[in-house]
Amino acid sequence: MVRHRVCSGGGRCEWFIGEPDARLRGAVRPYRGFRARAGVPQERLVVPSGRVSLLIGFGGELRVGGPGPGAARHTSVVSGLHSRARVLGHGGRLHGVELALAPWAAYRLLGGGSLADLGDVLTDPEDVLGGRCRVLGERLAEAPGWAERFALLDEALLAWTAAADPAHTVAPVVMEAWRLLHRAQGHLRIRELADRTGWSTRHLENRFREQIGITPKRLARVLRLRRAVGELTAGRGAAETAAVCGFYDQPHLSREFKDLTGLPPGRFLAAAGTADAAWITG
Predict the structure, then answer these.
(1) For the chain, where are the alpha helices, taking DSSP H only?
(2) Where is the HTH araC/xylS-type domain (predicted)?
C-alpha cells in the first residue's frame, strides 16, 4: 500500500505500508517505509505509542529535539517506550523504514539487557543490535523496491528471533500485566493489577520496567492518552471522553494532555486536523 501527502511547505511525502510475515504479527506492526522530498525542513510531534520503535534510515538525517545546534542527529535510531511526546525533524529529505515492536518482542529481539535502559531514550541501533543493524540497513538501501525491502525485514526479524536467547523472554506475569493494561486501555489501578497477577506492587513495577521499559503506571497513562485521542478525534466531547477513558474529570484530561504532549486537547486536535499538520501519533 502506498500513501501520498503534500509535505509541510510543499514537496512530496510518501508512505509505503507492508504487512510482516504471519509469524511476526502481534510482535511487529505493519512496516512503514517513507520517503520525504520536501525541500524545506520538516518537524513532527511524536506522541507516545506504547511500542519500541526501530527506524532504519538509508537517506537523509533525523534530528531529535527541534531546530538548533544542540539537537541530536541520527541516520538510524531506536526508541524505547516513552511517556512524553518529542519533536523529530529533518532537513527536507529523508528515506527509510520504521518498525514498531511490541515491548515483549523487543525485549527478546534486542537481547542482552534491560528495556529500562531504553525507556524515554533514543539511541543508535548499533548500540543495542550491533553490526547486524548496519548490515540490514545497507541491504535495505540497495534493494530495488519496497516489496523486496519488506521481505528482507521478514528474513532478518525471523532470523534474529530464532537466534535470540530463550532465557531473555518476558516473564509470564509481566506479559499478563501488559495484556491486562491493554485490555483495559490503561483504565486499571496498579494495585488491582498487582493483585490480579499475584505479585507485590513493588516487585511488579521493577520487573515490568526491566522487561517492558517503563512502569505499569506510566504505560497506563500512555494508553489512556491514546484512547482519548481516538475518542476526541471521532467527535466525542471532552467531558464524556474524560469519563470513558478513566480520567477524574475534564480538567484532569486537559492536564494529562498538556503533560504528555505539551499541548491542551483543543490545540492538539486543531494541529492534527490541518492539511500541513507536522505530527504523527507514534
Answers:
(1) 103-110, 126-129, 131-142, 146-163, 172-183, 190-197, 201-212, 216-233, 238-244, 250-261, 265-272
(2) 181-271
Cell representation of residue 215? 512502569
Compute, in degrees rounded to 10, the torsion defined by CA atoms 152, 153, 156, 158.
-120
Rounded Cα–Cα distance for residues 28 and 125 (Å): 17
Partners of residue 88 on adjacent β-strands: 44, 64
pLDDT at 280 over 70: no
Angstrom CA distances, 47 to 81, 116, 191, 273, stand at 11, 19, 27, 15
Total domain count for the chain? Answer: 2
- Comparing C-alpha atoms, which of 194, 251, 250 is closest to residue 220? 194
Burial (CB < 10 A; 0-12, 13-18, 19+), residue 220, is buried
The widest CA-to-CA distance across the chain, in whole angstroms, is 55
The model's confidence at residue 101, banded by pLDDT at 50, 70 and 90, is: very high
In a domain, 101, yes or no: yes
- Identify the domain containing residue 247 by its residue range: 172-270
Q: For 79-98, what is each residue's pLDDT tens digit?
A: 889 888 888 777 667 889 99
Q: What single-letter amino acid sits at 64?
A: V
- Give the domain CATH number at 254: 1.10.10.60
CA distance 271 to 8: 12
> For residue 171, what pLDDT is reported?
94
Decide if 281 is inside a domain: no
Strands 31-37 and 122-123: unpaired
pLDDT tens string 63-83: 776 555 556 777 788 888 988
